[in-house]
Amino acid sequence: MQKQAIYWLSAAAIFLALLYTVSGVLLPFVLGAAIAYLLDPVADRMERWGIGRVWAVSIISLLGVLLFTIGLLILVPTLINQALQLVNTVPSLVEQLTNWARDSFPELSDEQSQMRQTLNTTLTNIGNAIQSRGGELIGGLVGSAMSVVSIAMVLFIAPVVAFYLLLDWDRMVRHVDDLIPLPRRAEVRRIFAEIDQTLSAFIRGQGLVCVVLGVFYAVTLMLAGLNFGLVIGFGAGMISFIPYVGTLVGGVAAIGLALYQFWGDWLHVAIIVAIFLIGQFLEGNVLVPKLMGGSVGLHPVWLIFAISVFGALFGFVGMLVAVPVAAIIGVLIRFGLQKYKEGPMYRGPSNML
């Protein structure tokens, strides 16, 4: 048993070292594998309808390319433009906030006041920093995802990888299953089934939750008349897979802009606050129970830790694989704890029972 543990730990260490070595070229392959995993149930269902695997994969691929192209031509430019406008507008927002503070608090009108000087210096530095670094931040976020390979490789290789993996997915699963040692096959199958259930519930479910929340926030904030509502709402939805971060970041940004834009019109400010409260209610009471089927065994702290660690080690690719790896490790830990409680170390020698 100890030799097996040493063997598997050594294999895992070597595998992680190889991943770290080739992490610079993994992005299109990780994306392709993720796409294939997400779409395999769709292809299986189409097969049950009598459509051949090749035709099913071809139809899925054509629809995916069509939707991606529409999003690329319509949604992405708007999001980028609003993000850049938001960054460039921050200094004027800070200046107007300073003027409002001066008018609302007469004691700040004293030019020699230490509070006045500190407030002016702080707000000016914040505004200039956001303006000067905001564009770099946006570019860095895009660049960090694309620096490991060219944009063309990501856009063309990932779909090709996804197509061939989706085409051969069931065959690969059968080959892997055939390699499992016969004495452990039932046990390993049970572990793989639990891993698949966890990944399916979290990745597919959380992905749909993010999309629905992003659309909800973006549409409602735009209908409420909030400037930059599209980029704030869509961003809040997309990062909601990190527990509490999406709502916190999006809510603070949206409410802050609402206070600036609708100051004195408290009804509009209340509407913005209500949008995020409704979003939170929908996420916790409707979307997560319906789309994710309840708890999937991933504690929020464990998830945030995994994303932070893998992001630091492998960059953008690490953030992509953090959730699947966290789910797999969680399943393996639960399996190990179960075995520990069934063993003599926990239960004691059998003659003492």
State the helix count: 13
Order of secondary-structure elements:
HHHHHHHHHHHHH
Low-pLDDT runs of 5+ residues are: 144-149
Helix content: over 70%
Shape estimate: globular
Describe this structure in words.
This protein has 353 residues and is mainly α. It is 83% helix and 0% strand. It contains 13 helices and no strands. α7 runs antiparallel to α10, α9 packs antiparallel against α10 and α11 crosses α12. The two termini are 24 Å apart.
What is this structure, in a nutshell?
It is built from 13 helices and no strands.
Structural key phrases:
mainly alpha, single chain, 353 residues, 83% helix
Strand and helix layout:
Blueprint: H1 2-21, H2 27-48, H3 53-104, H4 114-146, H5 151-167, H6 169-179, H7 185-223, H8 229-238, H9 245-261, H10 266-292, H11 300-314, H12 316-342, H13 344-347
Helix pairs in contact: 2-3, 2-5, 3-4, 3-5, 3-8, 7-8, 7-10, 7-12, 8-9, 9-10, 11-12
